[in-house]
Protein backbone atom coordinates (compact mmCIF):
# COMPACT_ATOMS: atom_id res chain seq x y z
CA UNK A 1 0.00 0.00 0.00
CA UNK A 2 1.40 3.36 -1.04
CA UNK A 3 1.67 5.68 1.93
CA UNK A 4 -0.31 8.87 1.41
CA UNK A 5 1.12 12.25 2.26
CA UNK A 6 -0.82 14.63 4.49
CA UNK A 7 -2.32 16.62 1.61
CA UNK A 8 -3.72 13.45 0.05
CA UNK A 9 -5.18 12.35 3.38
CA UNK A 10 -6.83 15.72 3.98
CA UNK A 11 -8.29 15.61 0.46
CA UNK A 12 -9.44 11.97 0.37
CA UNK A 13 -9.82 10.91 4.01
CA UNK A 14 -8.27 7.97 5.84
CA UNK A 15 -8.68 4.29 5.04
CA UNK A 16 -9.24 1.53 7.59
CA UNK A 17 -5.81 0.10 6.86
CA UNK A 18 -4.15 3.41 7.59
CA UNK A 19 -6.04 3.73 10.87
CA UNK A 20 -5.02 0.26 12.01
CA UNK A 21 -1.36 0.61 11.04
CA UNK A 22 -0.29 1.15 14.66
CA UNK A 23 -3.14 -0.67 16.43
CA UNK A 24 -1.16 -3.81 17.25
CA UNK A 25 1.76 -1.85 18.64
CA UNK A 26 -0.60 0.25 20.74
CA UNK A 27 -2.22 -2.89 22.19
CA UNK A 28 1.22 -4.18 23.17
CA UNK A 29 1.96 -0.82 24.78
CA UNK A 30 -1.16 -1.05 26.93
CA UNK A 31 -0.16 -4.52 28.12
CA UNK A 32 2.94 -2.89 29.62
CA UNK A 33 0.95 -0.30 31.54
CA UNK A 34 3.10 -0.54 34.65
CA UNK A 35 6.31 0.00 32.71
CA UNK A 36 4.93 3.22 31.20
CA UNK A 37 3.21 4.38 34.40
CA UNK A 38 -0.26 4.26 32.86
CA UNK A 39 -2.84 4.92 35.57
CA UNK A 40 -6.30 3.33 35.61
CA UNK A 41 -7.93 6.61 34.58
CA UNK A 42 -5.52 7.42 31.75
CA UNK A 43 -6.84 6.79 28.27
CA UNK A 44 -5.23 7.26 24.86
CA UNK A 45 -6.68 8.29 21.50
CA UNK A 46 -4.99 8.03 18.12
CA UNK A 47 -4.17 11.40 16.59
CA UNK A 48 -6.18 11.17 13.40
CA UNK A 49 -8.17 14.41 13.40
CA UNK A 50 -7.84 16.48 10.22
CA UNK A 51 -8.75 19.80 11.87
CA UNK A 52 -6.68 22.81 10.80
CA UNK A 53 -5.55 21.13 7.59
CA UNK A 54 -4.20 18.12 9.44
CA UNK A 55 -1.88 20.10 11.72
CA UNK A 56 -2.51 17.67 14.59
CA UNK A 57 -2.71 14.51 12.46
CA UNK A 58 -0.14 11.81 13.11
CA UNK A 59 -1.35 8.19 13.09
CA UNK A 60 1.82 7.11 14.94
CA UNK A 61 0.80 9.27 17.91
CA UNK A 62 -1.65 8.46 20.68
CA UNK A 63 -2.48 11.33 23.05
CA UNK A 64 -3.75 10.76 26.56
CA UNK A 65 -6.21 12.68 28.71
CA UNK A 66 -3.30 13.19 31.12
CA UNK A 67 -1.36 15.29 28.61
CA UNK A 68 1.05 12.58 27.44
CA UNK A 69 1.83 11.58 23.85
CA UNK A 70 3.21 8.16 22.98
CA UNK A 71 4.79 7.75 19.57
CA UNK A 72 5.09 4.46 17.69
CA UNK A 73 7.32 5.92 15.00
CA UNK A 74 10.31 4.29 16.68
CA UNK A 75 11.36 0.70 17.35
CA UNK A 76 9.93 0.96 20.86
CA UNK A 77 7.04 3.09 22.13
CA UNK A 78 8.31 6.47 23.21
CA UNK A 79 6.62 8.96 25.54
CA UNK A 80 7.44 12.26 23.89
CA UNK A 81 9.07 14.94 26.00
CA UNK A 82 7.66 18.34 25.02
CA UNK A 83 9.73 21.51 24.87
CA UNK A 84 8.75 24.53 26.95
CA UNK A 85 8.85 27.70 24.89
CA UNK A 86 8.30 31.25 26.09
CA UNK A 87 6.66 33.37 23.41
CA UNK A 88 5.27 36.86 24.04
CA UNK A 89 5.58 36.24 27.81
CA UNK A 90 3.42 33.12 27.51
CA UNK A 91 4.82 29.67 28.25
CA UNK A 92 3.57 26.63 26.36
CA UNK A 93 4.76 23.07 25.83
CA UNK A 94 5.31 22.06 22.20
CA UNK A 95 6.08 18.89 20.27
CA UNK A 96 7.23 18.64 16.68
CA UNK A 97 4.82 16.78 14.43
CA UNK A 98 7.01 15.39 11.67
CA UNK A 99 3.95 14.12 9.79
CA UNK A 100 2.47 17.60 9.30
CA UNK A 101 5.76 19.49 9.60
CA UNK A 102 4.26 21.69 12.34
CA UNK A 103 5.14 22.42 15.93
CA UNK A 104 1.97 21.86 17.95
CA UNK A 105 1.00 23.00 21.43
CA UNK A 106 0.30 20.08 23.75
CA UNK A 107 -2.72 21.72 25.36
CA UNK A 108 -4.44 22.28 22.02
CA UNK A 109 -3.71 18.71 20.98
CA UNK A 110 -5.29 17.38 24.19
CA UNK A 111 -8.24 19.77 23.91
CA UNK A 112 -8.88 18.69 20.32
CA UNK A 113 -9.18 15.01 21.21
CA UNK A 114 -10.85 15.24 24.63
CA UNK A 115 -12.85 18.47 24.78
CA UNK A 116 -13.77 19.43 21.22
CA UNK A 117 -17.12 18.66 19.62
CA UNK A 118 -17.41 20.07 16.10
CA UNK A 119 -21.22 20.04 16.08
CA UNK A 120 -21.34 21.92 19.37
CA UNK A 121 -18.25 24.13 19.19
CA UNK A 122 -17.86 25.07 15.53
CA UNK A 123 -14.42 25.41 13.97
CA UNK A 124 -11.56 24.34 16.23
CA UNK A 125 -9.23 26.98 14.75
CA UNK A 126 -11.54 29.71 16.09
CA UNK A 127 -11.41 28.44 19.68
CA UNK A 128 -8.82 29.13 22.36
CA UNK A 129 -7.70 26.82 25.13
CA UNK A 130 -7.60 28.04 28.73
CA UNK A 131 -5.55 26.49 31.55
CA UNK A 132 -7.59 26.44 34.76
CA UNK A 133 -4.33 26.25 36.69
CA UNK A 134 -1.29 27.68 34.97
CA UNK A 135 1.61 27.24 37.38
CA UNK A 136 4.08 25.44 35.13
CA UNK A 137 6.70 25.02 37.83
CA UNK A 138 4.46 23.21 40.32
CA UNK A 139 2.21 21.25 37.95
CA UNK A 140 4.81 19.87 35.55
CA UNK A 141 4.81 19.31 31.81
CA UNK A 142 2.06 16.70 31.74
CA UNK A 143 -0.38 17.65 34.51
CA UNK A 144 -0.71 21.22 33.31
CA UNK A 145 -1.93 19.96 29.94
CA UNK A 146 -4.26 17.26 31.25
CA UNK A 147 -7.79 17.44 29.89
CA UNK A 148 -9.31 18.23 33.29
CA UNK A 149 -7.10 21.34 33.55
CA UNK A 150 -8.26 22.73 30.21
CA UNK A 151 -11.29 24.59 28.87
CA UNK A 152 -12.16 25.31 25.23
CA UNK A 153 -13.43 28.87 25.03
CA UNK A 154 -14.02 31.68 22.57
CA UNK A 155 -11.53 34.52 22.38
CA UNK A 156 -13.94 36.78 24.27
CA UNK A 157 -14.44 34.21 27.01
CA UNK A 158 -10.68 33.73 27.29
CA UNK A 159 -10.18 37.44 27.87
CA UNK A 160 -12.82 37.34 30.60
CA UNK A 161 -11.23 34.36 32.31
CA UNK A 162 -7.84 36.02 32.31
CA UNK A 163 -9.35 39.16 33.83
CA UNK A 164 -10.88 37.09 36.62
CA UNK A 165 -7.56 35.40 37.34
CA UNK A 166 -5.77 38.75 37.50
CA UNK A 167 -7.91 39.94 40.38
CA UNK A 168 -11.42 40.05 38.97
CA UNK A 169 -12.62 37.37 41.38
CA UNK A 170 -12.07 39.68 44.33
CA UNK A 171 -13.99 42.43 42.55
CA UNK A 172 -16.93 40.11 41.95
CA UNK A 173 -16.93 39.00 45.57
CA UNK A 174 -16.96 42.65 46.63
CA UNK A 175 -20.13 43.15 44.60
CA UNK A 176 -21.75 40.24 46.37
CA UNK A 177 -20.76 41.62 49.77
CA UNK A 178 -22.25 45.00 48.87
CA UNK A 179 -25.45 43.33 47.71
CA UNK A 180 -25.75 41.45 50.97
CA UNK A 181 -25.26 44.61 53.00
CA UNK A 182 -27.85 46.48 50.97
CA UNK A 183 -30.23 43.49 50.94
CA UNK A 184 -30.22 43.45 47.14
CA UNK A 185 -31.28 40.17 45.56
CA UNK A 186 -29.74 40.62 42.12
CA UNK A 187 -26.59 42.24 40.81
CA UNK A 188 -25.96 43.46 37.28
CA UNK A 189 -22.67 42.07 36.03
CA UNK A 190 -21.51 43.21 32.61
CA UNK A 191 -19.57 41.15 30.09
CA UNK A 192 -19.19 38.03 32.17
CA UNK A 193 -20.34 34.67 30.89
CA UNK A 194 -21.90 31.84 32.84
CA UNK A 195 -18.87 29.58 32.70
CA UNK A 196 -16.85 32.26 34.53
CA UNK A 197 -19.06 31.71 37.55
CA UNK A 198 -18.63 27.98 37.25
CA UNK A 199 -14.92 28.69 37.49
CA UNK A 200 -15.52 30.55 40.75
CA UNK A 201 -17.04 27.39 42.18
CA UNK A 202 -14.21 25.24 40.85
CA UNK A 203 -11.74 27.49 42.66
CA UNK A 204 -13.58 26.80 45.92
CA UNK A 205 -14.76 30.36 46.38
CA UNK A 206 -17.44 30.65 49.05
CA UNK A 207 -20.08 31.78 46.62
CA UNK A 208 -23.07 30.11 45.05
CA UNK A 209 -25.04 31.74 42.25
CA UNK A 210 -27.77 31.31 39.70
CA UNK A 211 -26.98 32.82 36.31
CA UNK A 212 -29.35 33.80 33.50
CA UNK A 213 -27.41 34.13 30.21
CA UNK A 214 -28.84 35.90 27.19
CA UNK A 215 -28.62 34.55 23.63
CA UNK A 216 -24.95 35.56 23.39
CA UNK A 217 -24.06 33.79 26.62
CA UNK A 218 -23.67 37.02 28.60
CA UNK A 219 -25.13 37.32 32.08
CA UNK A 220 -27.69 40.05 32.53
CA UNK A 221 -28.18 39.36 36.23
CA UNK A 222 -26.97 37.06 38.96
CA UNK A 223 -29.04 35.90 41.92
CA UNK A 224 -27.16 36.01 45.20
CA UNK A 225 -28.09 33.02 47.36
CA UNK A 226 -25.12 32.37 49.69
CA UNK A 227 -23.27 34.66 52.01
CA UNK A 228 -19.60 35.40 51.45
CA UNK A 229 -17.24 35.40 54.40
In short:
The protein contains nine helices and twelve strands. It has 229 residues and is α+β, with helices and mostly antiparallel strands. It has a four-stranded antiparallel β-sheet with strand order 1-2-3-4, with helices on one face.
Compute the number of strand runs.
Answer: 12
Provide the structure class. alpha+beta
Can you tell me the number of structural domains?
A: 2
Number of helices: 9
Low-confidence stretches: 184-195, 204-213, 219-229
Largest sheet: 4 strands, antiparallel
Query: What's the shape?
Result: globular
Order of helices and strands: HHHEHEEEEEEHHEHEHEHEE
Helicity, in percent?
25-40%
List keywords for this structure.
disordered C terminus, Homing Intron 3 (I-Ppo) Encoded Endonuclease, Chain A, alpha+beta, four-stranded antiparallel beta sheet, 229 residues, globular, 2 domains, three-stranded antiparallel beta sheet
Kindly describe this structure:
This protein has 229 residues and is of the alpha+beta class. It folds into 2 domains: 6-153, Alpha-Beta Complex (Homing Intron 3 (I-Ppo) Encoded Endonuclease, Chain A), CATH 3.90.75; 163-224. 36% of the residues lie in helices and 24% in strands. The protein has 9 helices and 12 strands. The strands form 4 sheets. A 4-stranded antiparallel β-sheet has the order 1-2-3-4, covered by helices on one side. The protein has a 3-stranded antiparallel β-sheet with strand order 5-6-7.
Amino acid sequence: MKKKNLQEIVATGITGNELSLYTCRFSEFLREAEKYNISDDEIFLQCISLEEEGKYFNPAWYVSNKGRIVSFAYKKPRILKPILKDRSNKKYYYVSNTFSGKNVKIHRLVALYYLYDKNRDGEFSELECHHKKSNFESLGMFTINAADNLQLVTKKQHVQLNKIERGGIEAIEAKFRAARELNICTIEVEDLTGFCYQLLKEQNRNVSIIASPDNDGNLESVAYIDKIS
